[in-house]
């Protein structure tokens, strides 16, 4: 096969394809340039006319009202059926003496993860007792305690069905994609119409939201059971049902338990988000209500409860999932030897019930013993605002005026003398173009046209802003990128996705969401990649970052808002920080994993030819780890999109705010359009970056 000069030794056919794609991108840029030149003459190129938007939301609202009128009585009956066990469990948890719950949970934690986890669980629950949040925490646990079994059972049966039927799996996978990418608030809007306000809405939303991770883990785990295990069951004469329940499910139990753990975390996250509609006095409502009243000390104390609950449940679930595949020898003897943890929990319950008759504090923690450090926390916040407010405002304003505002409305509209020290002029524009050309030349020299394309795209977005970019130009770039990454089918999906946003009247909010995503994901990815590189080269740094990453990944989403609002109040900058905090972990972990996975013999070969450590990093390790790093970028984007709706609580004006507004006004049509737009953005981004990662992996001959 003949190689072509100037193409890095690529075969001639590949070089022709590269040249062809270079011409395609040249054509796309010419089309975009024409759109920008005509944007003043034809304003509809930037602002899609409202009269061109069909009344999709009205049709959806009318259809939903008809459905509600027909089936409302069924859902209200379902609400009554679900409310009964939830109220019963909540009453039981409130009736049980708190020492019984603490000791039983501690025993469970010891069984799952040993002494350290037991101490962590005990101290976490005692924190809820002494800070006065025990009753609210038990309400949240009651909701999770009903939601998780329902989700787990539904997920188990759907996952088994999908694992045994390729046709069912083809149907389930896109449905699961939609369920996992539709914003969490979008689940609440139709449920409010059917079920009304109250705790059952949060329960049902949690069940729906927690099903997909269980289904996926069951499907993957059962499908990956070793063929020899299945064959052994068949040779033993098992029927299909026996083969499933006696052979495949036990063999897949570690993966199923991991799915159950993710199911628990998803249910907890959704229960707390559902607290925004009110109706039940759980710990999530405590956080929301105190945030709205600017009682930051109280909000932080309640937020710590949520974080502790999440970490406690996550670590106990992980512990049981790790032990699910262990072979245990049968223990002989009396029942307390065969089941020591259950015996301990029952003994703790009996002892607590008896002791509460003598010591009332074992039943209700005395109000006088409650420790509430909210006042000093509020005073600390006031001190920070008074003494460091100027510095915090300077940081916020610098980020807003020099970074975020240009991404939103463009340099052409944001450069002003009162912030920049000069106004936008032809000279300033020429300097910007010269800087962009220099960066583009360096990118061209290093990576060819593949490096030049993103420089031109980001330069255009920074100059005109996402809200000032003509929609045909934006669509052309995204479609070209999709086709280049994943073929014409992905390009068609991109076309219909953006067409949905355009015809649904959600284009401008979508551009505001994209601006916020670009700004936050770019910083998250750069900082996270730098930390991942550092951790990959330093075991001590890796050991420090690991528990921090674990904590960040287990905390429910809107807990991130509490310290940020305390320091920076509401606004786009607070939303940027919240998204960055939530989305940075995959960039760190995938970068470190990718660099540590580079084969040792490759690094030894680089040393033998005289490469320095810097050359090995930039010319050997990073290129080989690039597919993993790109997967980390993909996950960073996905988590950032997930956080968009939560960020609406701090005052953004994007798709997240549309979703939140649809929930508060019970506008089903607007919720479908806004939530569907976010889901389509997430699915399109996921497919593009998955395809790019796979291409890079094939190019390098590595396995993801």
TrEMBL record:
Main location: membrane
Keyword check for DNA-binding: no
Compartment(s) where it occurs, according to its Swiss-Prot or TrEMBL record: Cell membrane
Record flagged with keyword Membrane: yes
Keyword list, A-Z: Cell membrane, Membrane, Transmembrane, Transmembrane helix, Transport
Membrane topology value: Multi-pass membrane protein
PANTHER family: GLYCINE BETAINE/PROLINE BETAINE TRANSPORT SYSTEM PERMEASE PROTEIN PROW, GLYCINE BETAINE_PROLINE BETAINE TRANSPORT SYSTEM PERMEASE PROTEIN PROW
Protein name per the record: ABC transporter permease
Gene source species: Hypericibacter terrae
């Amino acid at each position: 096969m003949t190689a072509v000069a100037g193409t890095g030794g690529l075969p001639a056919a590949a070089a022709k394809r590269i040249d062809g794609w270079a011409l395609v991108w040249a054509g796309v840029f010419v089309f975009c340039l024409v759109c920008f030149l005509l944007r003043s003459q034809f304003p509809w190129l930037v602002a899609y006319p409202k009269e061109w938007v069909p009344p999709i939301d009205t049709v959806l609202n009318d259809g939903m009202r008809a459905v509600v009128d027909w089936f409302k009585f069924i859902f209200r009956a379902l609400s009554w059926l679900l409310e009964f066990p939830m109220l019963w469990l909540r009453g039981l948890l409130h009736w049980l003496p708190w020492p019984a719950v603490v000791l039983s949970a501690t025993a469970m934690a010891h069984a799952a993860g040993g002494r350290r986890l037991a101490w962590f669980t005990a101290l976490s629950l005692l924190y809820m007792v002494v800070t006065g949040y025990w009753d609210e925490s038990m309400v949240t646990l009651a909701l999770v305690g009903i939601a998780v079994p329902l989700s787990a059972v539904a997920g188990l049966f759907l996952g088994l069905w999908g694992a045994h039927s390729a046709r069912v799996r083809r149907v389930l996978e896109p449905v699961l994609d939609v369920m996992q990418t539709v914003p969490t608030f979008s689940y609440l809007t139709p449920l409010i119409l059917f079920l009304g306000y109250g705790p059952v809405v949060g329960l049902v939303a949690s069940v729906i939201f927690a099903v997909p991770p269980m289904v996926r883990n069951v499907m993957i785990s059962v499908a990956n059971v070793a063929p020899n295990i299945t064959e052994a069951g068949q040779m033993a004469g098992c029927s299909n049902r026996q083969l499933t329940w006696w052979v495949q499910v036990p063999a897949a139990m570690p993966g199923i338990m991991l799915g159950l753990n993710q199911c628990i975390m998803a249910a907890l996250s959704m229960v707390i988000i559902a607290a925004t509609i009110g109706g039940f006095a759980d710990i999530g409502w405590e956080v929301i209500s105190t945030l709205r009243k600017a009682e930051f000390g109280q909000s932080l104390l309640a937020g710590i409860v949520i974080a502790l609950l999440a970490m406690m449940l996550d670590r106990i679930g992980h512990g049981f999932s790790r032990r699910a595949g262990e072979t245990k020898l049968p223990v002989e003897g009396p029942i307390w030897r065969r089941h020591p943890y259950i015996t301990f929990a029952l003994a703790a319950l009996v002892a607590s019930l008896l002791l509460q008759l003598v010591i009332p504090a074992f039943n209700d923690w005395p109000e006088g013993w409650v420790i509430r450090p909210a006042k000093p926390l509020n005073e600390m916040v006031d001190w920070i605002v008074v003494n460091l407010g100027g510095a915090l405002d300077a940081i916020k304003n610098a980020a807003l005026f020099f970074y975020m505002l240009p991404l939103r409305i463009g340099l052409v509209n944001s450069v002003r003398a009162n912030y920049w020290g000069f106004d936008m002029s032809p000279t300033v524009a020429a300097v910007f173009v010269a800087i962009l050309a220099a960066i583009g030349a360096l990118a061209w020299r290093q990576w060819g046209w593949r490096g030049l394309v993103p420089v031109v795209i980001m330069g255009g977005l920074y100059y005109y802003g996402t809200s000032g970019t003509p929609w045909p130009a934006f669509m052309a770039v995204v479609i070209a990128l999709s086709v280049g990454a994943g073929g014409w089918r992905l390009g068609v999906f991109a076309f219909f996705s953006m067409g949905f946003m355009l015809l649904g009247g959600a284009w401008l909010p979508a551009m505001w969401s994209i601006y916020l995503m670009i700004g936050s994901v770019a910083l998250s990815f750069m900082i996270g990649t730098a930390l991942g590189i550092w951790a990959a080269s330093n075991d001590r740094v890796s050991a420090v970052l690991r528990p921090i990453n674990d904590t960040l990944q287990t905390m429910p989403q809107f807990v991130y808002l509490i310290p940020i609002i305390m320091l920076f109040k509401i606004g786009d900058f607070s939303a940027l920080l919240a998204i960055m905090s939530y989305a940075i972990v995959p960039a760190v972990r995938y970068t470190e994993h990718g660099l540590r996975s580079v084969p040792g013999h490759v690094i030894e070969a680089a040393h033998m030819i005289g490469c320095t450590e810097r050359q090995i990093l930039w010319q050997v390790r990073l290129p080989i780890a690039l597919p993993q790093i790109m997967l980390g970028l993909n996950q960073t984007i996905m988590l950032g999109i997930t956080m968009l709706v939560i960020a609406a609580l701090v005052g953004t004006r994007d798709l997240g705010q549309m979703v939140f507004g649809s929930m508060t006004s019970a506008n089903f049509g607007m919720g479908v359009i806004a939530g569907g737009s976010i889901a389509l953005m997430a699915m399109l981004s996921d497919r593009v970056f998955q395809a790019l990662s796979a291409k890079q992996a094939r190019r390098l001959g590595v396995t993801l």
